[in-house]
Write a structure and sequence with these properties.
Blueprint (H helix, E strand, L loop, with lengths): L1 H12 L7 H22 L13 H14 L3 H7 L1 H23 L1
C-alpha cells in the first residue's frame, strides 16, 4: 500500500500525467532505489519506515526521485546537504535514545 501512495506522490512531483508500463516500471525502480539509499543517508534503521508520511523525510524522498528522474543524482547530495544532515541528526538521536532504553 505504501508503495502505491509513494508512486502517486512521485507521479505528481514529476508531473507524470500519462500511463504506460515503461514509465511505471522506471518510477517503481526509482522508488525501490530511493528507499534504501535515503535510509542510509538519513540514518533510518526502522525496516518499515514510511516515506509517504508528510515531513522532511517525504520532502527529501520526493526530491531524490526528481533528481533520479532527471539523471542528476550526483547533485542531490550537494543541493540537500544541510537538510540531509538535519534529518540524519534527528534519527541518530532517536536511535541512541532507543538503544539506551533497551539497555535499561
Amino acid at each position: 500500500m505504501e508503495n502505491q501512495i509513494l508512486l502517486g506522490q512521485v507521479r505528481r512531483k514529476l508531473n507524470v500525467t500519462w500511463n504506460d508500463t515503461e514509465t511505471d516500471a522506471r518510477l517503481e525502480e526509482i522508488i525501490a532505489n530511493a528507499i534504501p539509499d535515503l535510509k542510509h543517508k538519513l540514518g533510518i534503521v526502522e525496516e518499515d519506515f514510511d516515506f509517504s508520511i508528510a515531513g522532511a523525510e517525504n520532502s527529501l524522498f520526493l526530491a531524490y526521485c526528481l533528481y533520479d528522474w532527471e539523471h542528476s543524482l550526483q547533485e542531490f547530495d550537494l543541493n540537500y546537504e544541510r537538510m540531509i544532515a538535519q534529518v540524519r541528526s534527528q534519527h541518530l538521536v532517536k536511535n541512541y535514545v532507543a538503544s539506551e532504553e533497551t539497555i535499561e
